[in-house]
Amino acid sequence: MEPFDVHTGLAAPLARINIDTDQIIPKQYLTRVGRDGLDTGLFHDWRYLDGDATRPDPGFVLNLPRYRGASVLVAGDNFGCGSSREHAPWALMSYGFRCVISTSFADIFFNNSIKNGLLPAVVEPALLARLVDEIEATPGFAITTDLAASTLRTSAGSRFGFTIPEHARHALAEGLDDIETTLQHARAITAFEARSRDRFPWLG
């Protein structure tokens, strides 16, 4: 997993609340075991007219030319609620997002994001509203996310803090998923297995 340090990117606003994982990536894309093509399915029911991926809805925010290439999503409260699907952060990252800023995230989505290198940054409601207003008012509005400092810097010159648990910060900064985190303790695991074989030989 690619470590997260500092990221600067064009910001896109999606200030709807309770955006669930079925809206992030609908069920018809869940049969895929890889990440290829999931960018097409991101927000499928909102991005396309009549569910036809060849007919982008010109009114949807990510289809507006000014937000093309956005890599920071500023979203409404309770982002990622609904069913557990790792495809949700996969789709966001396949599209090009490295950071989602919201006032809160569903726990399962939050954890899946950390395991896949997507930063879920939590901010106060007043700050989120201010960011949405500034993004909509300023074409080319960019946000720099500094994980180590837990800060957001905007292209307008503002600087704000965000919150993230220390274990999540460490995993993102080091680029560690669950397996890689476990392997950091490989020597201790091997020693434990050796002691167990000596103590309980009948277990094989």
Distance between the termini: 35 Å
| Count of DSSP-assigned helices | 9
Largest sheet properties? 7 strands, mixed
Overall spatial form? globular
Portion in helices? 25-40%
On the 0-100 scale, what is the average pLDDT? 90
| Low-confidence sequence ranges | none
User: Strand order, biggest sheet?
Assistant: 4-3-2-1-5-6-7
Order of helices and strands: EHHHEHEHEHEEEHHH
Percentage beta strand: 15-25%
Structural class: alpha/beta
Tell me the radius of gyration.
20 Å
Write down how many β-strands occur, each being a DSSP E stretch of 2 or more residues: 7
What would you note in describing this structure?
The chain is of the alpha/beta class and 204 residues long. The chain has helices at residues 21-24, 38-41, 44-47, 87-95, 107-116, 125-137, 166-174, 178-183, 186-199, and strands spanning 6-14, 72-75, 99-102, 119-122, 142-146, 151-154, 159-161. α5 (107-116) links the parallel β3 and β4 (119-122). The two termini are 35 Å apart.
Keywords:
single chain; about 200 residues; alpha/beta; seven-stranded mixed β-sheet; 9 helices; globular
What is this structure, in a nutshell?
With 204 residues, the protein is of the alpha/beta class. The protein has helices at 21-24, 38-41, 44-47, 87-95, 107-116, 125-137, 166-174, 178-183, 186-199; strands spanning 6-14, 72-75, 99-102, 119-122, 142-146, 151-154, 159-161. Helix content is 36%, strand content 16%.
Fold blueprint:
Layout: E1 6-14, H1 21-24, H2 38-41, H3 44-47, E2 72-75, H4 87-95, E3 99-102, H5 107-116, E4 119-122, H6 125-137, E5 142-146, E6 151-154, E7 159-161, H7 166-174, H8 178-183, H9 186-199
Parallel strand pairs: 1-2, 2-3, 3-4
Antiparallel strand pairs: 1-5, 5-6, 6-7
Helix pairs in contact: 5-7
